[in-house]
From TrEMBL:
The gene is gluQRS. Residues 6-236 form the Glutamyl/glutaminyl-tRNA synthetase class Ib catalytic domain. Zn(2+) binds at residues 98, 100, 113, 117. This is Glutamyl-Q tRNA(Asp) synthetase. A motif ('KMSKS' region) lies at residues 227-231. Its cofactor is Zn(2+). Catalyzes the tRNA-independent activation of glutamate in presence of ATP and the subsequent transfer of glutamate onto a tRNA(Asp). Glutamate is transferred on the 2-amino-5-(4,5-dihydroxy-2-cyclopenten-1-yl) moiety of the queuosine in the wobble position of the QUC anticodon. The keyword Nucleotide-binding applies.
């Protein structure tokens, strides 16, 4: 069985260097094992999206030689699949309506959830969210990069939203349905998503999907420790500088290209990266060198 991986960006802005690192790591991890690498655009939340961002991200991946297999999948076109899965959860009694607002949860001092709506169901089903009961109070998984992770959920703390009060499907549900539908065997992504994993494992179990293997690379930060993200306006990367950026990305991931690759082309660098891919060499902390700006970036 070949392994199948994916890169799943949200089109909330152009690709930034942190996302490029995640895409590259996932690509090398899969290609080094002769697997298939897919791209899925997670455009589930229109108000947060930026027009043209999805195309920009795809063009940037191509410019870096990160070519994907098959068609790009868009979550905005898959609501039927998510609805079906939600119905399964409702029918089997693990999803329940919840009309708690964030404000109410805050006022009750709730961490995670307190089971309120399971005991006192909302009077009407208009504008309700659906939560899934987290049935496994103890969970662990072995992350290929971060090692063993343990989780313990008290009461209804772990119950999580799969359908939002604003009528949108939640990230957790869409991701799990898509990973199963696309036959994803290996997920490599940023460690900002690591604590979503137990919820996704729970959903996979409830929906009868096989769990993929998980690997989380550290989230890259600025030298001052601040996360490099769309939220703090990390600049888009400039494909003009792709050779330098690719070299820098490989080095940051601990896969430093050997000196004899000084004149290598993009393809040669990627081929080298596949042949020499070593997840164990990824450093525990990824941070940009101080005072040394990434080429092609405006700060
Ligand atoms: Zn509630």
């Amino acid at each position: 069985m070949p392994c199948i991986g994916r890169f799943a960006p949200s089109p909330t802005g152009p690709l930034h260097f942190g996302s490029l690192l995640a895409a590259l790591a996932s690509y090398l991890d899969i290609r080094s094992r002769n697997g298939f690498w897919k791209v899925r655009v997670e455009d589930l939340d229109p108000p947060r999206e930026q027009p043209g961002a999805a195309d920009h991200i795809l063009r940037t991946l191509e410019a870096f030689g990160l070519h994907w297999d098959g068609e790009v999948v868009y979550q905005s076109q898959r609501h039927d699949l998510y609805q079906e899965a939600l119905q399964v959860l409702i029918d089997q009694g693990t999803a329940y309506p919840c009309n708690c607002s964030r404000k109410q949860l805050r006022a009750r001092g709730v961490q995670g959830y307190d089971g309120h709506c399971l005991h006192q169901p909302p009077p009407a089903l208009a504008n309700v969210a659906y939560r899934v009961r987290h049935l496994q109070p103890r969970q662990h998984f072995n992350d290929r990069i971060q090692g063993r992770r343990d989780y313990h959920w008290h009461g209804h703390q772990g119950d999580f939203v799969v359908f939002r009060r604003d009528g949108l499907f939640a990230y957790q549900l869409a991701v799990v349905v898509d990973d199963a539908d696309q036959g994803i065997t290996d997920i490599l992504r940023g460690s900002d998503l690591i604590d979503e994993t137990p919820h996704q494992l729970e959903l996979q179990q409830q929906l009868g999907y096989p769990p993929p293997d998980y690997a989380h690379i550290p989230v890259i930060t600025h030298a001052n420790g601040q996360k490099l993200s769309k939220q703090n306006l990390a600049p888009a990367i400039d494909p003009q500088d792709r050779l330098t950026l690719l070299r820098q990305a490989l080095s940051l991931l601990g896969q430093g290209p050997s000196p004899d690759l000084a004149d290598a082309t993009l393809t040669e660098l990627l081929d080298w990266g596949c042949l020499n891919w070593n997840p164990a060499a990824i450093p525990a902390v990824l941070s940009l060198p101080a005072a040394k700006h990434l080429p092609g970036q405006v700060y």
